[in-house]
């Protein structure tokens, strides 16, 4: 579970790094981080090392981070619903968190060592310190989970994205499991504190609590990471398409870059380390190359020759070309001739309009430019050969 939690932490840290102003995302990242820390503190070696500082200190820390998990998940839904106006609501809920945490710490400090080491253990169920500790921790978690369940159900119904709807449903299942766990443990704690119930009769309910907690935490991590994972999977085909187009554009880009070196967009990105994480460098390089090519084609304006275009069109028709294929071949020939004229500094005596055929967005422009680049890389004899 620790590995799963830290994979979620890495994913959320990358997302927060890219969008630090996104308040719901920051809250979600803090939630996953608290889950991961709590999971790590449950590793026997680390738990023993922490307990050497003070008996039961690891258990106290785990429970405090668990309460923080409930708060940050509550903050995520509150920010999602109210935006920056959620700060006032969260101040009230943060006050309740502080109160619950203070009660937990106070009960733990006043408890004997045996209770400190395992405040939620059934063996300590008759100790009032253990009862107060459990009620404070699970009472706040139950309060937060009830609010979260209502919000996640509303968001799931309102969401138009299938992936988001599914992720919220998984998260709702996780919260329902954790709420059932809290109710189970509170029932056990109250039964032990207020009655003389046989511990054996309460043990199945306590075991159910442990399994519900495990199921809820794992399901919560899956729910939080579901949207990110599906987005990453969906981004792979786009990344492959951009990478392929980036390479196809190289012949045309190299020729224009040699003719107009000042058009290269060499601005240093704000954070190279940030760009090294994920697929963004490929996308940025691809878009930059498309923009540089378009700028270069415009700069060649005085060198486009009408006679060259007419000759290329005649050769293409003779080879059986027509429609978009013929138009692309004419434009490729026109750009190649304009580059030669630019190198000799010989403007066209009878100028031809600047080639333009792309659509109304960058992707369609890139598709058109890729065709031109592939055609320019071919020898003229092959380009105008009969199909």
Automatic annotation (TrEMBL):
Keywords: Membrane, Transmembrane, Transmembrane helix. The chain crosses the membrane at residues 27-45, 57-82, 94-111, 131-149, 170-191, 211-239. The keyword Membrane applies. Signal peptide: none annotated. It holds the Pfam family DUF6545. Residues 239-373 form the DUF6545 domain. InterPro entries: DUF6545, MAB_1171c-like. Residues 342-362 are annotated as: Disordered. NCBIfam families: MAB_1171c_fam. This is DUF6545 domain-containing protein. It comes from Sphaerisporangium album. The lineage of its organism: Bacteria, Bacillati, Actinomycetota, Actinomycetes, Streptosporangiales.
């Amino acid at each position: 579970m620790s590995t799963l939690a830290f994979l979620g932490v890495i994913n959320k840290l990358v997302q927060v790094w890219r969008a630090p102003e996104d308040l719901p995302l920051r809250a979600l990242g803090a939630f996953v981080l608290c889950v991961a820390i709590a999971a790590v503190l449950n590793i026997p070696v680390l738990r023993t090392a922490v307990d050497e500082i003070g008996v039961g200190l690891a258990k106290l820390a785990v429970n405090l981070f668990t309460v923080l998990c409930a708060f940050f998940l509550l903050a995520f839904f509150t920010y999602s619903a109210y935006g920056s106006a959620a700060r006032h609501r969260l101040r009230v809920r943060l006050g309740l968190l502080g109160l619950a945490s203070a009660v937990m710490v106070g009960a733990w400090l006043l408890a004997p060592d045996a209770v400190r080491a395992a405040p939620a253990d059934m063996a300590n169920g008759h100790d009032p310190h253990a009862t107060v500790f459990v009620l404070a921790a699970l009472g706040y978690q139950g309060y937060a989970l009830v609010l979260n369940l209502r919000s996640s159900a509303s968001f799931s119904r309102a969401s138009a994205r299938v992936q988001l709807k599914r992720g919220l449903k998984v998260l709702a299942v996780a919260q329902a499991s954790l709420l059932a766990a809290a109710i189970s443990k509170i029932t056990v704690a109250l039964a032990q504190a207020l009655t003389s119930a046989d511990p054996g009769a309460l043990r199945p309910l306590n075991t159910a609590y442990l399994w519900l907690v495990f199921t809820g935490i794992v399901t919560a991590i899956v729910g939080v990471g579901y949207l990110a994972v599906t987005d990453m999977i969906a981004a792979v085909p786009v990344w492959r398409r951009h990478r392929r187009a980036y390479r196809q554009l190289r012949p045309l880009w190299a020729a224009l870059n040699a003719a107009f070196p000042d058009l290269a967009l060499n601005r240093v990105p704000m954070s190279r380390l940030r760009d090294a994480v994920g697929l963004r460098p490929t996308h940025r390089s691809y878009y930059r190359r498309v923009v540089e090519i378009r700028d270069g084609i415009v700069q060649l304006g005085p060198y486009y020759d009408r006679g060259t275009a007419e000759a290329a069109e005649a050769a293409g028709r003779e080879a059986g070309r027509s429609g978009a294929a013929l138009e692309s071949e004419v434009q490729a020939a026109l750009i190649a001739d304009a580059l030669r004229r630019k190198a000799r500094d010989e403007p066209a005596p009878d100028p031809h309009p600047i080639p333009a055929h792309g659509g109304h967005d960058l992707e369609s422009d890139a598709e058109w430019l890729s065709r031109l680049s592939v055609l320019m890389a071919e020898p003229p004899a092959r380009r105008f050969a009969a199909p």
